[in-house]
Amino acid sequence: MSKKHIGVLVMSYGTPESMDQIEAYYTHIRRGSPPSPEQLQELVDRYDAIVGGFFPLRENTNKQVAALEAALNAGADENTAYRCYQGLKHASPFIEDGIAQMAADGIKEAVGVVLAPHYSVMSVGSYIKRAQEKADEAGLSIRFVKSYELHPKLIEALTNRVNDALDKFEDRNAVRVIFTAHSLPEKILEMRDPYVDQLMASSKAVAEACGITNWQFGWQSAGRTAVPWLGPDIQDTLRTIHEEEQVKNVLICPIGFVSDHLEVLYDVDIECQQLAAELGMHLERTESLNTDPLYMETLRDVVVSEASGD
C-alpha cells in the first residue's frame, strides 16, 4: 500500500535573511511603496541592534518547520507521511511559493497552519485567504487550522515559561505580569473579530495555571498609520503602573508571539528594558516558545486533527 502524503503549509510573517534585504522586505509590507530613507534607516538600525549584522532570525522559522515535520512523522502511522513547506507573508518563500511547491511535488491534500495561536481576520485570516486562492488555482485541496489559543500543551509551555521567569525575582508575589501581543487596528472590535477574546482567554488560562492574580494585558508594536490601533501601548502601561501604583517588578510575557524576532528582541528587550531602567523597575521577559517540544506537539496535534477532519 502506497503512503498517503499530506503537505503542511507552515505560515508566518517572515523576516529578511540579511541586512541587504531589509528594504525589499519593508517595501512589501508597505504594499509596494518604498520606505523613505529615514524610515528605512530606522528599521535597519533596529535590526542591527538585535543581530549586529548577522541574521539568525530566519533560522527560528526554519527550525520550527523542521521540528514540526519530525514531530508529525514520528507520530504518524506507517501509511501516512507529512511534508512541511514554508509560506511567508512578506518574504520568500511567499505563501504562494509554498503552495506552488506542494503542487509541483505532487501533493494533493494539505493542511495550513500559522505560527500564531490567535485568530484575526487581519492576521491569520489574510494568510488563509492567500493560501486558499493559490491552492484553488493549483488544484490543491487544503484545510486550515484557524487558532489553537487554548490547546493544553500550549498553555503548559507558556505556564512553564512564566514560572521560570518569576523565579528571577526575589518575591514572585510582588511581580506584575503583563501579557502582550501585536496590536491591530481598532476597527477589528467593530467586526466582532475574535483576536482580543482569544488573547484574553490564553492569558487567563496561563495566569490561573501559575496561580497568579496580579496580571494585566498590554499591546505592543502598533503600526504607524492614520487609523487608531488597540492600546494602551506597553510602554504607556509601564509608565502608568509605575506612576499610579508604584509597581517595581514587571514580567512581560509576549503571549501573542511564538518566536524570537524584532517585536520581542527589540520592542521588549531593548525599548521596554531601557524604559524600565529609567523608571527604576526590575523587568524580565519570558523566553519565546521557538522549538519548545510542547509547542511542536501543539502544532502537531492541531495539524493531525485538521487533516483527519475532526
TrEMBL record:
A GO biological process held by the record: heme biosynthetic process
Binding residue positions for Fe(2+): H182, E263
Cellular component GO terms, alphabetical: cytoplasm
UniProt entry tagged with the keyword Transcription: no
Organism: Paenibacillus contaminans
NADP listed as a keyword: no
EC number(s) from the headed UniProt entry: 4.99.1.9
Any one Pfam family match given in the protein's UniProt record, by short name: Ferrochelatase
Compartments where found: Cytoplasm
Positions annotated to bind Fe-coproporphyrin III: Y13, R30, R46, Y47, Y127
Full protein name: Coproporphyrin III ferrochelatase
NCBIfam families per record: hemH (TIGR00109)
Pathway: Porphyrin-containing compound metabolism; protoheme biosynthesis
UniProtKB keywords: Cytoplasm, Heme biosynthesis, Iron, Lyase, Metal-binding, Porphyrin biosynthesis
PANTHER family on file: FERROCHELATASE, FERROCHELATASE, MITOCHONDRIAL
Catalytic reaction annotation: Fe-coproporphyrin III + 2 H(+) = coproporphyrin III + Fe(2+)
InterPro entries assigned to the protein according to its UniProt record, in alphabetical order: Ferrochelatase, Ferrochelatase_C, Ferrochelatase_N
Main function: Involved in coproporphyrin-dependent heme b biosynthesis. Catalyzes the insertion of ferrous iron into coproporphyrin III to form Fe-coproporphyrin III.
Family: Belongs to the ferrochelatase family.
